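Deliverable D2.4 — example input (C-alpha cells):
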C-alpha cells in the first residue's frame, strides 16, 4: 500500500510539474518561487489609499478628449486654509450649527489648454476624521471672506486662472483633516489640513 501511495504521489508531482504557462516551458532555469493561481493572477491588487497633498501643492489634471470636446488640462490648488474666520452681518439661520464656526478655504484653478471649463464651489468639501463630510453652503455676500470663489460657476478659457475663498461652516471645535475636490472626471483629490 505504501508503495502504491508513493508511486501515486510521484506521478502526480510529475504531472503537476509539467503543467504551467508557456513561459515556464521555454525557460531553462527552474524557479523555486511560488506560483500564483490563475484567479489570483487576473485580480489586480487593490489600489493604495491616495496620499493627501500639502496645502499649496498643485494637482495637475487632464480631462480626456470626447467626441464633443478636446483634451483639456489644468491645475487645481488649495492655497490657504483659515479657521476660524470672522463673518460679519450674516443671519443665524444661514447654518444649522448651534455654535457655528466659519472656515475659509482659498483655492486656485487654472485652465492650461483645451476647452473652456466651468468652476464653482460645488466640487469642494471638507472631510473629518470620523468619515463625515461638510459640503459648501454655496454662500456669497458682503460679510464673507474675500475674494469670493463663484457659487454658480464661472468660465475659464484656456490660459485663465481663478482664485477665491470658499466658506464652510462647522460646529465650533470641529476641525477637518482633509479638503476634497471631486468634479466631473477629476478627483477625488485631497489636501491635508494642518493641525491647529
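Example output (designed residues):
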Amino acid at each position: 500500500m505504501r508503495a502504491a501511495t508513493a508511486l501515486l504521489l510521484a506521478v502526480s508531482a510529475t504531472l503537476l510539474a509539467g503543467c504551467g504557462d508557456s513561459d515556464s516551458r521555454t525557460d531553462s532555469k527552474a524557479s523555486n518561487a511560488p506560483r500564483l493561481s490563475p484567479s489570483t493572477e487576473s485580480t489586480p491588487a487593490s489600489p493604495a489609499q491616495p496620499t493627501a497633498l500639502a496645502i499649496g501643492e498643485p494637482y495637475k489634471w487632464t480631462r480626456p478628449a470626447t467626441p464633443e470636446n478636446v483634451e483639456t488640462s489644468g491645475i487645481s490648488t488649495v492655497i490657504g486654509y483659515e479657521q476660524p474666520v470672522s463673518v460679519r452681518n450674516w443671519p443665524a439661520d444661514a447654518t444649522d450649527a448651534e455654535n457655528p464656526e466659519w472656515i475659509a478655504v482659498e483655492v486656485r484653478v487654472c485652465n492650461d489648454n483645451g476647452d473652456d471649463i466651468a468652476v464653482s464651489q460645488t466640487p469642494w468639501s471638507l472631510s473629518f476624521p470620523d468619515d463625515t463630510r461638510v459640503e459648501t453652503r454655496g454662500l456669497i455676500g458682503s460679510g464673507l471672506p474675500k475674494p469670493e470663489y463663484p457659487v454658480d460657476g464661472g468660465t475659464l478659457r484656456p490660459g485663465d486662472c481663478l482664485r477665491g475663498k470658499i466658506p464652510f461652516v462647522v460646529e465650533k471645535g470641529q476641525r477637518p483633516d482633509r479638503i476634497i475636490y471631486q468634479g466631473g472626471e477629476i478627483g477625488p483629490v485631497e489636501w491635508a489640513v494642518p493641525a491647529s
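Residues 1-46 have pLDDT under 50 and may be disordered.
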